[in-house]
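Hey, resending since the last one bounced:
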Amino acid sequence: MVDYSRQQGVGVWFWKHGKDLRTPEAREEFFKMLHDLGVTGAKIDFFDHEAKEVIDLYEALLQKAAEYQILVDFHGANKPTGRQRTWPNELVHEAIRGMESSALKERARHETILPFTRLLAGPGDYTAMLFNDRRRDTTVAHQIASTAVFAAPLLTIAANPQTVLSKPAVDLIKSVPSVWDETMVLPNSAIGELAAYARRKGDTWFLAVMCGPQQKTIRVPLSFLGEGQYNGLFVRDSPTEDVKVEVEKSIHKRGDSHSVELRPGGGFLGRFSKSQKFFICV
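The structure tokens again:
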């Protein structure tokens, strides 16, 4: 399976219960096995509290994983504390009330609070973008926008892959990076009401907006764009149904502004790609 996945450009991750890695011998055996098999990373789960022995365990796990060149996702864990500066193989902590929380009803408010609270500490494994009933009071466009707002080096998507592939916005979804070169929180943002972000990867900008419980219409100046023209690809709320989206293309430049109409719990995601210039030599 690992060999086949590598041929497809996919790295395999293994899940492991944290209680099974409490001893040096267990950690050595586990991470050596992953390395020998060619596995990319380990999702280690159920830490559950912040006693000293658990905090020490994070450090021991990261050190041994680094020795064997294994990436790590800490699930069921406390919030990140900057340890990834020492151990860059630590990609993400869960430490968030994410899509696993089936009892959560008011997701629109919840998901417009997190970017300005929990996510200030570091990436969270929210398992973003779900299109079934668990999205609660948010629209499908809101869920798509969450992939750019809830940024994480390991961005885990909750939706069934076939469901994603069947969406009219699939090309835009597939192009969302997991790491960014620049991030701007836009002035329209308000905790629990609206999260509006402009993020850049290379020469490409993304505009991501997640709306809280009340519908809104905002106008966003595109002053973050560079010089020249940009090709825009947008997914926005359908005006009639939460489960539908509209996809459109347009041309923009830095002096423009863009109007975004948002349903209650709505969303918007736009990609601005630099227009290519072609020269013909005769």
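Residues 182-274 form a domain with the Immunoglobulin-like fold (CATH 2.60.40.1180).

Sorry for the duplicate.
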